[in-house]
Design goal:
The protein is an alpha+beta fold. The chain folds into three domains: 2-239, Aminohydrolase, N-terminal nucleophile (Ntn) domain (Glutamine Phosphoribosylpyrophosphate, subunit 1, domain 1, 4-Layer Sandwich); 281-297 and 305-335 and 364-382 and 557-578, no CATH class; 393-533, no CATH class. It has helices spanning 12-16, 21-29, 85-96, 105-116, 195-203, 257-270, 286-298, 320-329, 341-355, 363-375, 387-391, 395-407, 416-425, 436-442, 460-468, 476-487, 489-498, 500-507, 524-545, 547-551, 564-571, and strands at 2-9, 39-44, 48-54, 67-68, 74-82, 126-134, 139-144, 153-156, 170-175, 177-181, 217-218, 224-230, 233-239, 279-281, 306-312, 333-339, 380-382, 556-558. The strands form three sheets. It has a seven-stranded antiparallel sheet with strand order 4-5-6-7-12-13-9. A six-stranded antiparallel sheet has the order 2-3-1-10-8-11. A five-stranded parallel sheet has the order 16-15-14-17-18, with helices on both faces. A hairpin with a 2-residue loop joins β12 and β13. α16 (476-487) crosses α17. One of its GO terms (biological process) is asparagine biosynthetic process. Keywords: ATP-binding, Glutamine amidotransferase, Ligase, Nucleotide-binding. Residues 2-230 form the Glutamine amidotransferase type-2 domain.
Length: 578
């Protein structure tokens, strides 16, 4: 786990015209020193400026970055972990004749790409982001793990980021220099707010490429950016990973409990690859407990695994007692941090600064404290991040599934107009099943958040979002309320309607038009899971409660539920299995 930043210039004229020069680059680079305290190194030549802060887990004495290839033609900066890199080395050595000099996954990536090209990316297992460049500045390739666990931001010179507001399989553009960094704060050039990008982020209409800043994008999970110099410009192409989380409502085969256990166990075992001690985040939820169980079976029994739990003085939100009991049951060494409202208020601005997100929620504030607390004992943890996205665990998934269930009592529909007509003739409330979700999460005036919901559960979210956005969005009530507070009712509705085409395109990303229908309730869970995993997960979850809260305190997080073994299993599952 590390942090890097850099600038690739198409020629020396572009470099000489860069505002602020090398001093400004170094000042910006120091803003992410928290991402690695093992060492800091630079690489500078006429067309490349690179800075790297390393937090070492494998081959702590080797693997220094920026790393230059053995033939002296390419250089890499890398953040994250590739867990299967040692298994890839025999093939790379056979085809290249290279003898590896370190045990570092960085060297495997660099030499592997030189012989296998971008096809290497399909073989990688891990959480990572990296950039490989030719030393003469003529070519660059950037890649990020499938689910966007590790961050990577880019600022191509003078690009209009609105071209990324809608999903395409490929985007082409030109520029004269490209800035890049693990966090936006390490981008050297001046930042200017992008109104739509900022509003989309704050109200919760997340998108995977645009950011709240003009000309700054994030590389989406699984995507590849390639740049080659020609005619005094970089000609760039950004190619999306267009594979959905699941392809079909019916699936291609339902996994058994044994299948899932085997997949998770393999994922946990891969993520124990480390030369330094690892711990685990443990809550009252089943996701972190499943990881803890597998970790306890796979780890060296001579040293107790350290678990880390955050508790709250407000009893309704506190799960610390059950988490601590479970840790003791597994023979772990539990560490507990209790927080009150004052602590969360204190850490809110720190969470915003660390995540580079402006959010009206406090869960990121708690994770900031947990990261700080945990780093006092270990420098890496396994986390349950990704379980809810992959296995449909969030309340919004249950709400969507209820919508699908409720609409089955009505005439089948295939588009939004048919759905509106069906509800006009047979409105919600006409059937007993229509009130099941509301009764479950709002009985006796219970707080829906404490009851495990994120909406009132009447179905109005879907009706309103279909009218405004053209998609069934389970969180539209809170999105609309936040937007109206910021803009006023009339302006809010106008602005939300203007986002419809963009939102629809990201809902359908990875699907062919004849495979799904936006307003067909039968497709609603499939579409929401894919949209959430490709938009909310890399933008909100990994930043607000994942990588950024951990790395703010120089702590690495590893995510077993976002492995290839788990995602390959989930890809085949039907709706009813989740």
């Amino acid at each position: 786990m590390c942090g890097f930043s850099g600038i690739a210039f198409v020629d020396t004229r572009s470099r000489d015209n860069f505002s602020g020069g090398l001093d400004a680059f170094r000042t910006a680079s120091r803003r992410i020193a928290h991402r690695g305290d093992t060492e800091h190194r630079e690489y500078l030549n006429e067309q490349l400026w690179l800075s790297h802060y390393r937090l070492a887990f494998q081959d702590t004495s080797g693997g220094k970055q920026p790393m230059i290839s053995q033939d002296g033609r390419h250089v890499i900066v890398f953040n994250g972990e590739v867990y299967n890199h040692l298994q890839l080395r025999p093939q790379i050595s056979r085809e290249s004749g290279v003898t590896f000099k370190t045990r570092s996954d960085t060297e495997t990536l660099l030499e592997g790409w030189k012989v296998l090209g971008n096809s290497l990316f399909e073989l990688l297992e891990g959480e990572y982001a990296f950039i490989i460049m030719s030393l003469d500045g003529t070519e660059l390739v950037a890649h990020r793990d499938k689910f966007g666990v590790k961050p990577l931001y880019l600022k191509p010179e003078n690009i209009n980021t609105d071209v990324f507001s809608e999903y395409r399989k490929r985007y082409d553009f030109t520029c004269r220099h490209i800035e890049f960094a693990s966090e936006i704060k390490a981008i050297t050039s001046k930042k200017t707010w992008h109104r739509d990008g900022l509003l989309r982020q704050f109200v919760g209409l997340f998108e995977p490429i645009r950011t709240p800043f003009q000309s700054i994008i994030q590389l989406p999970g699984g995507a590849v950016l390639e740049a080659r110099s020609r005619g005094g410009e970089y000609h760039c192409s950004l190619t999306m990973d267009d594979s959905p989380v699941r392809k079909s409502v019916r699936g291609t085969g339902r996994a058994t409990e044994e299948d899932f256990s085997a997949a998770l166990r393999a994922s946990v075992e891969e993520r124990l690859l480390s030369d330094v001690e690892l711990g685990i985040y443990l809550s009252g939820g089943i996701d972190s407990r499943a990881i803890a169980y597998e970790m306890s079976r796979l780890s060296d029994t001579s040293r107790k695994i350290k678990s880390f739990t955050v508790g709250f003085t407000e009893a309704g939100y506190d799960e610390s007692a059950s988490a601590t009991d479970f840790a003791k049951y597994l023979g772990m060494d539990p560490h507990l941090l209790m927080l009150d409202d004052a602590a969360l208020q204190y850490s809110y601005p720190l969470a915003v600064q660390s995540s580079e997100l402006i959010q009206p929620f406090t869960n990121g504030c708690a994770k900031w404290w947990l990261g700080l607390f945990t780093r006092q004992s270990v420098q890496g943890v396994l986390t349950g991040d990704g379980a809810d996205e992959m296995l449909c665990g969030y309340p919004s998934y249950r709400y969507v599934n209820w919508w699908k269930f409720a609409m089955r009592a009505r005439k089948p529909v295939t588009n939004c107009e048919e759905l509106k007509q069906a509800l006009s003739k047979d409105p919600l409330g006409s059937h007993p099943r229509d009130s099941l979700y509301f009764q479950r999460f709002n009985r006796s005036g219970e707080n829906p958040w404490l009851a495990g919901s994120s909406a009132s559960g009447t179905g109005q979210d879907f009706i309103d979002s279909i009218e405004v956005l053209g998609v069934p969005h389970p969180l539209f009530g809170q999105i609309s309320a936040i937007t109206e507070t910021l803009l006023g009712p009339s302006a809010a509705r106008t602005w939300l309607k203007a986002q419809a085409t963009s939102i629809q395109s990201w809902y359908l990303a990875g699907f062919e038009r004849d495979e799904v229908a936006l307003c067909d309730p039968n497709d609603s869970l499939l579409l929401w899971q894919n949209y959430f995993a490709k938009n909310h997960l890399p933008v909100l979850i990994t930043n607000w409660v994942g990588d950024r809260m951990e790395m703010a305190n120089t702590l690495e997080g590893r995510t077993p539920f976002l492995s290839s073994s788990v995602s390959d299993l989930v890809y085949k599952q039907p709706d009813h299995a989740l």
